Every structure is written in C-alpha cells, then in structure tokens.
Amino acid sequence: MLDKSLVDLILQKKDDAFTVFYNMIVDHFYNYLKSNFSLSESDIHDIISNTFIKIWNNLDSFDKKKWNFTSWVWTILRNTTKDFFKKKNEYVFSDFDFSDKDGDVTSIEEFLEDDNNYNDVLENDYQLEQISEAIKNLKLSERELLFLRYTEWKSLKEIAQIVGLTETNVRVKIHRLLGKLKKYLNWKK
Questions:
Q1: Is 0.85 topped by the overall pTM?
Q2: Is residue 121 part of a domain?
Q3: Residue range of the domain that includes 155
C-alpha cells in the first residue's frame, strides 16, 4: 500500500513522486500481465506505458472519497489491458511459462542441474504443473481474483474496488475458486 503523503504528491503531479510510484509498481504490473496473458514483451511494455499515461492524465479526476489510490490504479491497468485485447481482437491466455522478472525462462533441466535433491524438484515441478493446469481451466476473471489475492496480496476491500464487486462477493468467489481448484486437483480438505 502506498504512503498517504506519496499519494498526495502524486496527485499534485510532482514528477519525482510519480517516478517513485512508477518504480514501486511497474514490476507488479509486469508480473500481472506476464502471468495472466500470453503477450510479447513489446505488448506488455505497451500496455504498461499506456496505463501510466492514463494514470498521469487522469490524476485530476481521481476521487479520494470513492477510491483507494492503489485500487484505482489497478482498475486502470485492467481497463487498459481490456482495451488492448479489444483492439487486437484476440483473447490468448498464458501458458504459465516459468520465467524471472528479466524474462529469462529456465527449463526443468537447468533446475535439476543446480539442485541436489532431484526427487523434490521433480515433485514440486509436477505439483506446479498440476496447479497451472487447474488454473488454466478457470475464467480470466477467476484467475484475476486469485492473482490479486495470492500474488499481489491485495485485501478483499482492494480487490472489490478493482473488480467492481462487493467485499462479501469477492470473499465468496475466492472461497469457491479454492474449492474448485481443490476438487480439480483431487486434494482433500
């Protein structure tokens, strides 16, 4: 969560504050796009650039009474992403390739070469593959809820603002999604 004084400086369009904000959140945006959509690096950077332009251009219209700043920013990212896909007219989703924040993909063979406990690595890889397969079967809106909650660690209130649902509805949806994933994976409660 952003410090209130930083948000105030951002809303006053202070370049230095906006730069600090950019540096704080750009990796989160990148990870969100990279893990939820099958996009080229160029497309990811375009969406992020357009998002920050929209944020900057709409700072004057931000309503502190209606929005939490972070939720407002994430909503702009979501809408910019939707606009991107509308323009491209394609809805391709991630294959859940494992890559670091620099975009370098590491194969299981490379993991195995660096790890002494091959069985644990293979078991963990298998479990990650099973979870990735289960997540692929979810709708984008469902994957998005899980991403915001368990990757970005957003509160239910923040998620509700971002996706336009009530806090209770978000809590129930996430609970049901976890149950759906457990059922798909045949895990016992």
A1: no
A2: no
A3: 137-189
